[in-house]
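Example record

One chain of 124 residues, shown exactly as stored in the release files.
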Amino acid sequence: QVRLVESGGGLVQAGGSLRLSCAASGRTFSGHTMGWFRQALGKEREFVGAVRWSGGSTYYADSVKGRFAISRDSAKNTVYLQVNSLKPEDTAVYYCAAARGLLTPRGVSEYDYWGQGTQVTVSS
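Predicted structure tokens for this chain:
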């Protein structure tokens, strides 16, 4: 079965950095887009960015562009989200997800598989 497991979250001060990981298993992910989303308390889940498994091209939400970076290691079946210059408003549960058959999916409904999330908390 397909399984996505996030890790690397934690408590950091504003201006700090983290690297989140998403370990993917259960199938070949060629042709998939691997996305990152986040959801703060009381808010809807929002798109952060994504990487095409084949080729490694990326795209991001405007709110995180220039601070966050996504990459993948095909040999390890792992996707990473590097989060830099963190702000309190970045506090959220961060989720990885996989979409098949779409070039640049950005919506929650466009993704087929989801992890359980990892908490990122940024203090002032």
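Notes: The two ends are 40 Å apart (CA to CA).
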